[in-house]
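Same chain as my last thread, 153 residues:
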Amino acid sequence: MSQLPAKNANGWNNTNIVVEGCAHNDETDIRQINRRDITDPHINITEDDGVVSSDDDCTSFLYEDETDFSDVYEAEQDSGGMGMCCGTASEPYPIRIDKTKPIVTYEFVLPDDGDAPYTPGQWVNQPVRLLITCEDTDDVQSGVDPGDFTYPE
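reply #2:
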């Protein structure tokens, strides 16, 4: 299996992805690659998008919706038999797409006054701290990478 664009370091994408699978059998031609639901492998969810090209026994699947699930792929031979596909023995291939940006909020506080709120433009003779919160709140949550922010740099 291969995927474009590639997954990020955490295994997620924030755009549509195309997954390509190739299968080869020396005895008979591969007719199509079936995409099956991992929760019930008897359900074929390929529809018409799994027919392989005659040149290389490969096909591509387009994923557009936000999701976090895995598909299983099987090669269907011209003879009707099913077999291993795409370099795996029907192992699930994770599909993870999260297109919703996290919600970022911020608040200025006065740490010397017990984190009392600070209004920008107000004159004070103490440090002002900026608290930034970043939340992933949609149905499909890839999470937010932790990080540090220092100003001035």
